[in-house]
Amino acid sequence: MSSFKEKLLNCRPFIVNNLVSIEDVIDTLISDGVLTTSVNEDIKTCQNDSNKIRKLLDFLVRKGSSEFDVFYSALNSTGNEHIALKLASDETTLSKNENAQSLQLVSKKKTIMDDKDKDILRKLRVQFVKNMIDVEGVVDILFSEDVIKDSHKSLIVRHLERSKQIRNLLDILPKRFNNSMSIFIKALEETDNIVLVNKIKELRHV
């Protein structure tokens, strides 16, 4: 079996659980000629993002290395660098240039958010949705600090309801990098979300 197919199969659970902005990934694959309109329509029949990702992976594993390369590039351009890094652990799959870029990302951002911080976001989710103010201000800070990408920002702010914006943000953050929580706390402090900051710090020191 080709190495890229092995990587897609081995990393499948991680990709399904951690890929964000699936629509942006699909749009990139369509524009680069990897996905046809009929395949896109088939993916759209899935009722949730996890199943869309599974169907996309089912399609990609039947394709060649050139399609995998486009998928890898799409991950890096849609805020899914954490998945690109996972796939890049197999040096035979990628070009030397792509591996060099991946190593730079590893040294800069290390790993995705640790489990304790993910658990804190989960426990405080209801309080965030009810009490967070100036969501766009928080998003702007996270964007300026490279915690979220332009595709993430667009996904969040396209909703008019504050609660939906917050839920989208909370869905994205756990899939970002290890220093994301510290920058998120800073963003909350700068937007006067002090009560939420205190709750996070309290749980972090338990």
Helices and strands in order, then pairings?
Layout: H1 3-10, H2 12-18, H3 22-31, H4 37-44, H5 49-60, H6 65-77, H7 81-87, H8 96-109, H9 115-123, H10 125-131, H11 135-144, H12 150-157, H13 162-172, H14 180-190, H15 194-204
Mind telling me the CATH superfamily name of the largest domain? Death Domain, Fas
Order of helices and strands: HHHHHHHHHHHHHHH
- What is the number of independent domains? 2
The helicity comes to over 70%
From the alpha carbons, calculate the radius of gyration and give it in angstroms: 18 Å
Structural class: mainly alpha
Q: How would you characterize this protein structure?
A:
The chain is mainly alpha-helical. The protein has two domains: 4-92, Orthogonal Bundle (Death Domain, Fas); 115-205, Death Domain, Fas, CATH 1.10.533.10. Helix content is 71%, strand content 0%. The protein is built from 15 helices and no strands. Helix 2 (12-18) packs antiparallel against helix 5 (49-60). The protein is elongated and about 50 Å long. The relative contact order is 0.12. The model is unreliable at 91-96 and 105-110 (pLDDT under 50).
